[in-house]
Structures are given as structure tokens and as C-alpha cells.
TrEMBL record, chain A:
Biological source species: Actinotalea lenta
Protein's name in the database: ABC transporter ATP-binding protein
Keyword Nucleotide-binding found: yes
Ranges of compositional bias, category Basic and acidic residues: 305-314
Lineage: Bacteria, Bacillati, Actinomycetota, Actinomycetes, Micrococcales
PANTHER family reported in the protein's UniProt record: CONSERVED COMPONENT OF ABC TRANSPORTER FOR NATURAL AMINO ACIDS, CONSERVED COMPONENT OF ABC TRANSPORTER FOR NATURAL AMINO ACIDS-RELATED
InterPro entries in alphabetical order: AAA+_ATPase, ABC_AA/LPS_Transport, ABC_transporter-like_ATP-bd, ABC_transporter-like_CS, BCA_ABC_TP_C, P-loop_NTPase
Pfam families according to UniProt: ABC_tran, BCA_ABC_TP_C
GO function terms (MF aspect): ATP binding
Automatic annotation (TrEMBL), chain B:
Family annotation (Pfam families): BPD_transp_2 (PF02653)
InterPro entries in UniProt: ABC_transp_permease, LivM-like
Protein name: Branched-chain amino acid ABC transporter permease
Main localisation: membrane
Places the protein is found: Cell membrane
Superkingdom assignment: Bacteria
Amino acid sequence: MAAEDLATPRDRIAKDLEAVPRRPGSAKPDAIIVADHVTRRFGGMTAVDVHHLEIQRGAITALIGPNGAGKTTLFNLLTGFDRPNSGEWSFDGRPLSQLSAAKVARAGMVRTFQLTKALSRMTVMENMRLGATDQGGERLVPSLFPPLWRHREKEITEQAEELLARFKLDTKRDDFAGSLSGGQRKLLEMARALMTKPSTVMLDEPMAGVNPALTQSLLGHIQDLRDEGMTVLFVEHDMHMVRHISDWVVVMAEGRVVAEGPPTTIMQDEAVVDAYLGAHHDTDLGDDSLLGDDVLDELEAEAEAQEHRTQEDA
Amino acid sequence: MEWTRILINVAGEVFAPATAAYALAAIGLNIHFGMTGLINMGQAGFMLMGAYGFAIATMNGWPVWAAVAAGMAAAAVFAVILGIPTLSLRGDYLAIVTIAAAEIARYTVRSSSLTSITGGNAGIAGNDFKGSFQQLCPLPEGSWSLGPFQYSNCLSNSWWLRIVGWGLVAIGIVLVWRWMKSPWGRVLKGIREDEDAVRSLGKNVYGYKMQALVLGGLFGALGGMIYVLPSAVQADALGRTLTFNVWTILLLGGAATVFGPVLGSILMWTVLMFIKSTLRDMPGGVFSSTQAEAFSWVLVGVTLMLLVIFRPQGILGDRKEVMLDGR
């Protein structure tokens, strides 16, 4: 994959987003998802409280934030897997907030899960076929008459074979999905989601539990989705990945959107530093040398000093 | 011991109407549990709906086809009422609700205040509802023997009932075989594995589960009708024990297989009959016939336990498929 191929769509999107103000809830030139006043409370705890959020069409948007920031909850709300206490959002101009998860998927917004949901006791191919749309044989009575759906089944199988080849799972075609490795399951889940021919793909921690060898190929696949014109929204902890592939970053903390901006500058944002990254935002979080004794000592000293200050403040 | 008589008894169980009735109920349960993963602990309730629906409609002068439709409609309504509150909840709730609902149904039909309709505690005598079914019999009057097996052509425990019962089983097998191989069956299988994944792919999971619950219930209802036609309708014969027997049959034959329910039913009743007859005939009268009956049921319980521990996939199931846990 040559660098020039990737450069074009990414540069174009970067240009589109150039003029967007770097603040929470800023308007995008071509928003596909627009959410307003979305709140979700669990008992006394407010998990999500998003005033306004827009997601640019055709871009890769990363949703980051510390644990418990409400990223996955927001994901569940947007995809119909959870119901909000208040708020509404639209997808491609169509109000979506009251729809069931299945209808959201049929509208073109399909998701994957943090804990991969490969259907273990079905083969890889059956998993893929299940993702397909418009299969009349999925209705009770027509299913008894193969001539009614055999033609579509053939098309589905071809579509599935193409995707499996692209995700390098074609040799696993007839294996049970339960026999795949963690990374292969992630790939399968993504490929299965693409069987629905979505316009937006929502990936909940696509890198969790994936071995480093597969990470690179997963990143490539996600970028391919954007280059094909799909919108990608993903939750991730890995800063490398966020910087490497995203076009726009939305930072959540304590249920609210606290900052937005392009990945190159978002780490310098004051709110992000406060909320999430601490004082070491400009250091490489993936750098092993950070685990050296001297750095740890330094960190400990700083933490102590900070604690001291806090106590004095109080 | 009279081995010939014992073996004839055993062989008679292979194609007895009750065996067909259990097979039908297990085919229904296989649609619930094997195909969709719904844990229905009240299959007897669906059989009860079928049996009472058929018998009561017949007593009110309905023709056979309408009475059968009434029994099936009762089971479908029962399924929908159970399904509406429980199918949107997770797995185990359905098990609790179905076992409770089946018991409620049983207590309702045997209550003395409904004696004029359901016959209450005593149930409905065979002669009150068998007439129209027996009139449909195309065979000549009298009885017929096939080797050592002699049954009436049309009355009660008849050849006619065997033909209808096993005919229904055959239809059920063909339908389930088609459904399992179809995209519809694929969606059900996906739901069995992980319903959220299927939901995320745009399928109406609730609707599919409802279809499966109703469909399996309809087979249960047909099983219930065949179950009561040799004798009489009696509420207590349609209770928890019946449900557990149907589960044993399904697990014995193999859940999620096409022939599992039929093989399970045949095996269970022949083996049971073999043990019962052998024990009863033991020299020296070690077992009285009541003791033999009870002891053979103890063995059924032990078999079920051993089966679940050592061969969870049943006789026909694919061990590889069962052992992969849904991580």
C-alpha cells in the first residue's frame, strides 16, 4: 500500500476540517451524525451528558477519554443498544433516537463490540452470511422454498468471499468462529459488519486484545474503510493508533465532551491535559524507556508533590 | 422370563402413538432450544393447550380440522402471552416464566369451577372427543395384525392414530430440516450464539424469537393432541413430568439435530419398556410392577444426568460444536 494512496483522502478531509473550531461541540462542514442534549444516568451517576456533538461524514473520528468517561455508553446510545434519559440525534438527516438497534443497523450505522461477538458455534462463512441484507430466505415461510432465495444466497456468498479474502480469513472459511484467535475474531467481526454495506462503522475498541502483528493490518483496514467513503467512529485507548489513523479526535471525560480537534494538536489542549493525559501528554505513551527506574522515581516524586499541593489547597 | 413377550412389548413402543406424540413435542422443543437457544421449561403447557383446545372444540361440535386449528391457536396465544414480557429479557427468565405458566395452565383447567368446560379434576373422557377423529378413519372397521402387533383399525390406540401421528412427525422432520438449512434457521442460530451480535447486524431479534416460540409451541400442541387421543385428556398427565421427559428425549437424541427428537423418543420409550418388563418378570418376584415402574424412572433420571455430563451433544450431535463455549 503506497503512501500516496492514503494521502489523498486523508489530506482532503484534513482540509475540510481545517476551519472547524477546536472546541467541544463545534459544527462540522458535512456532519453525518448530529447529537443534542444526550444524557444517560445510572441511578445517581450521570454516565453521559453530551450537549452537542457532530461527526464529519467520511472521516475517521476517534472517541477517547479515561476509563469511565462514558465512551461506550455513548456508543450504545447512538446505536440503539441503550436508551437515553433525554436527548435526540440524527443520522444522515434522519432522526434516530427512538429506533431499535436493528433499525439503526438497517439505517446504515453498524457497530462492533469491545468484547468481540463472534458467533462461536457457527462457521466463519455462516457468520459472514448472517450479516447480509435483503435475504428473503430469512423470513419464516419463504425460507422453506430455496428457489426463492438461492440466487440471493449466491450473491451473498460471493460478497462474503471477497471480504474474507480482503481480511485474509479466506482459509478459515469453514472453521468454527470459536476456533479463531482474538485478533482474527476482530477481523471477522469487522468483515461481518461490512456485509451489511454500512455508511458508518462504529468500532468499540478495535485494538483491544489484538496481537501486535495484526494491529498493523487492522489499522490498514480501518483506513481503507474511510478511503472507500465510509464514516468511521471508534473508541480507543491506544494513543499511537489514534494519532496514526484518525482525522478528528473527540475527548470525553465524566460523560461530557471536553475537547475536539485534529489528532496532531489535540494532545496539547488544556482540557485534555487536565482530564486525561496528565502532565506527560507530550511523552510517548508507548515508549518502553518510560518504564525505567529513573522515570518512575521522577513520576512518584511529582505525584507526591502534587498530593502535597492538593492537601495545602484543602 | 418370557423374552419374546418382552421384545414384542419393546418393539411395539417403537411406533406407539405416545412415542410419536413425544417426538412431536421434542421437535417443537428443538426449535426453541436447539435452534434458537430459548429455554422453554413448559412444553407440557403447550401440549395441554393443544389437547384441551382440540377436545373442547370437538365436544362443541367443531369438525376435526377446526378443532385442530383451535388447539394450535390456543398454543399460539399461550406462546405470545409468554413471549411478550420475557423475550426482551435474557435467557433464564423465559425458563422460569414458562414452567410457571405451564403450571398455571394445568391448575386452571383442573379447577372445579371450570368442570363444565374442561371436566375439572377428572378431565375429559376419551369417548367425548375421539368420535370425529375416528370417523375420518379411511380404514375398514375391525382390527388388523402386523406380525405380533394387533391393534384396532380406527378406535383409540389404533393403526389410524399411528398413521396420523407418525405422518405428522415426518412432516415435522422435513420442515425442521428445511428450516435448519435456510437463512431463517441461520438467524435463529445466530440468536442462540449471541443475540446482541445479530441485533447489531440489523435483524429484529425479538420478532425471530417470537416466531420460534410460537412455531415450537405449535408442534407441542400437535404432540399434545396425539398424546391424548389413545386415551383421555387429564390435566395432571400434562404436567412437569411431561416437560422433563421431553427434555430428556431432546438431550438424548441431540439438540439442534434434525433426527435427534425422533431417535430420542424411540430410544427412551423402548429402553424404558425393556427395563420395566424385565424387572417385572424377574424370577422370585424381586420387583412388584409398581416398584418396577418407579425404578425405571429412577434410571431415566440417572441417564439424563450421565448424558449431560458425558455426552452433552446427545447421540446425534456434533461434539465439536457443543464443546466450543460461546466466549
